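#dry-run=false #mode=assembly
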Amino acid sequence: MSIDERHLPLYHAFLEQGLESWLARLPEQLARGLDRQRFGDLPAWERAVRRLPALEVQDVHLTQDTVSVEVAMDDASRRQCDNLLKILAPWRKGPYRIGDITIDTEWRSDWKWQRIAPHLSNLTGRRVLDVGGGNGYHGWRMAGAGAGFVLVIDPSPRFYWQFHAMRHFIGDAGANVHFLPVGIEEVPPNLAAFDTVFSMGVLYHRRSPIDHLRELYDTLRPGGELVLETLVVEGDEHQVLVPGERYAQMPNVWFLPSSKALMHWLSRVGFDSPRVVDEADTTLDEQRATEWMTFQSLADFLDPEDPSRTIEGYPAPRRAVVIAQKP
Ligand SMILES: Nc1ncnc2c1ncn2[C@@H]1O[C@H](C[S@+](CC[C@H]([NH3+])C(=O)[O-])CC(=O)[O-])[C@@H](O)[C@H]1O
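#status=ok
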């Protein structure tokens, strides 16, 4: 299989990071992850990103709540950027700002970062994996917090192109952040390579949650840190909700443990000292429809008579963050 030269920075980074066992799989993984036959809209997203104008960037902010790029734009470039970025909609994870274009995304992903960041081991120089990292919003924030190498993996090709739209403007300031359009199942076994691994908003989508935890364990080097964020229910260590076909309208939700059950699972898998650093109900201000995500959002998925319940009658979304170490 030939190597597409636009992916060269990714290959270089894998070499530099000593990820040789993964490197050999990249051409095939990229080809499959970006297969035009499988994803009909993909050529339009790719064209949109390729047509983004080259503008003079004055500054990039990866440490602020809104990942932003200071850039001077005349009216014509502004309209062009706005139209091209809208081709990539819905924008779910953010917020972002390019010049005076604010991408007000469905999620205030910055709020999740605020809940997590104070509890992390210092990310400076660390090699980080963000599993199911969406369009890379948290990946940029990890780089802003000093990470040496950030790899975001997410099987969504739309998110791949949203990531590259931002990368177009962020440029060298984000040169150590990379995106691979694959799921966790594509990560080579027993990698033991990453200092910190994030899995946020992914566990409840997995049919085998314990296997997911084990896969995450295998990606970490000994002494590495796992940051796990997922939907939970209230209750003791024996409480787990397995919803019916839909939970808050999502069709692919499997296991919602209590945070105590989750810590038990982590210990069983071999993690040391799991601890819950945050647990909170998801508010309607954190996940909502915007100009950049015009479909239904959380407010439509809760019982209008009783917002503490989903429309299916389950407890409304509540999320916990658990941090644990690999011995
Ligand atoms: N097999 C898989 N492997 C990896 N990722 C997957 C897989 N299947 C789906 N995904 C991806 O997991 C992400 C889950 S969203 C969390 C985003 C971010 N982390 C956030 O915390 O805001 C969940 C939410 O918003 O509820 C999506 O981007 C999927 O494409």
